[in-house]
Design brief:
- It contains four helices and 18 strands.
């Protein structure tokens, strides 16, 4: 733990100096830094049995850390380039397994807990204006301040996370500032293409006209399920995605409706074939040309000057193994985010959300027969949907650029199993941002 804090102190100091230098120059570039630490712990809970990927009934707490530099430049009027070196380390509870809607969205399923530096994002954005109307675009993470057209065609290419641009939500999308649970970060039945840390190489096209936006992306899949390396044999392994967004107002309050569809191709294993094997091992049935398809809807709506709600739902066919995100084939979630202005803490936020996750019949049969994926597998299964509730309060200390967020999550039927749990998870998130 000591080395996490020493590493964090070094990168925070460097970021603060660079951020100060930035204020004295023209805004032709952007530079930011964030560091997030998440510590979680749970009391013992009931478990009639445990398997290879079960959430552990008794264990010490776990801490994760991520530190990210966000650097961007606009070398030409309509061209922006971004690069994000990142450091991550630590671990999640139970090796980040045992709950499909895992309670820490900042945790990666990597073998070592030692802090590791890697290139998270490196991509370019070219915007072709199709009209003369513009709106102000403020300096932000991976966004150079300037004027943005209301009617445009945009091309995004390089290495990034698909959820940087797709399945956005004003109240439930960022585990560093909002809800921590994986099933609340994105529509969890979208098995979005990514390496083990959440990034892929992709090409995205966006078309926006006023309050409508249509976007599509094609991307690489990992070589193996939840693997660290991407598969560059694009013809045999790829992800396709399309999303339509409409922005509207109810009275004076803005909201968004997003509808997506996806199709992933990778050498996935098949659940029904795996059941026929003595080993009940889905990895032994992997074959090129397998697909997973699905749909999702995502809505956010501001209802008062200080608060808003969200609703998400998604589904995938669930015939073949989960390849990149988490073992959820159907999910629905809803919640509310409230600003603290009414209690004279306008810089604070509080949120409450509920999630119900499920899996396909084929997936249920596979787990009941003793199979396991990369996320769940108790050796047996007494099936019931996985139910999760989360509540948090974000206390912002603005002069120090620090936010402290106590967090509580209740998990009923972890990994879809009535014979285990419920689990009560307590956490504290600490974030520094420049």
């Amino acid at each position: 733990m000591k080395q996490f804090f020493l590493t964090g102190l070094l990168v925070v100091s460097t970021a603060h100096l660079l951020a100060q230098a930035k204020t004295d120059t023209l805004r032709l570039y952007t530079f930011h830094f964030q560091q997030t630490l998440v510590t979680q712990w749970h009391p013992d809970f009931q478990a009639k049995y445990s398997g290879v990927n079960s959430f552990v009934p008794h264990e010490p707490g776990a801490t994760s850390i991520t530190s990210t530099f966000y650097a961007g430049v606009r070398p030409l009027k309509n061209l922006e380039l971004y690069i994000n070196p990142e450091l991550s380390g630590g671990k999640g509870l139970s090796r980040a397994t045992g709950i499909a809607g895992f309670p820490n969205g900042e945790t990666f399923r990597v073998g070592s807990s030692e802090p590791t530096i890697y290139l998270a994002r490196a991509y370019g954005v070219y915007t072709l204006p199709l009209g003369h109307e513009t709106e102000k675009s403020d300096d932000d993470l991976n966004n150079v301040a300037g004027e943005r057209p209301l009617h445009y065609l945009r091309f995004i290419a390089g290495k990034y996370c698909l959820s940087d641009f797709f399945d956005l939500n004003a109240y439930s999308h960022d585990p560093r500032t909002q809800f921590l649970n994986w099933a609340l970060v994105t529509n969890a039945a979208w098995d979005y293409p990514a390496d083990v840390r959440g990034y892929t190489v992709a090409f995205t096209i966006q078309y926006r006209k006023n309050n409508w936006m249509l976007q599509a992306a094609t991307s690489l899949e990992p070589k193996t399920a939840n693997g660290p390396a991407l598969n560059y044999d694009y013809g045999k392994s790829n992800g396709q995605l399309i999303e339509l967004t409409h922005t509207h107002k109810i009275h004076e309050y803005e909201g968004n409706i997003r509808v997506m569809a996806f199709l992933n191709q990778a050498p996935m294993g098949n659940y029904l074939q795996a059941i026929k094997l003595d080993s009940v091992d889905v990895t032994a049935t992997r074959h090129n040309g397998r697909t997973k398809y699905g749909f999702g809807i995502n809505m956010d709506q501001k209802f008062t000057k200080d608060g808003g709600a969200f609703l998400k739902a998604s589904w995938n066919d669930g015939r073949n193994e989960t390849w990149a995100y988490t073992e959820i084939d159907q999910t629905i979630s809803a919640g509310w985010l409230q600003n603290g202005r009414s209690w004279r803490r306008a810089q604070d936020n509080a949120g409450i959300a509920f999630v119900a996750n499920g899996i396909s019949k084929d997936h249920q049969r596979y787990l009941a027969a003793g199979g396991a994926g990369f996320m769940v597998g108790d050796g047996r299964l007494n099936y019931s949907p996985e139910m999760i509730a989360e509540i948090f309060y974000q206390l912002n200390i603005t002069r120090l650029h620090i936010a402290l967020s106590p967090d509580y999550q209740f998990v009923l039927h972890p990994a879809y199993n009535k014979d285990r749990g419920p689990v009560n998870i307590l956490g504290l998130r600490t974030r520094v941002l420049f």
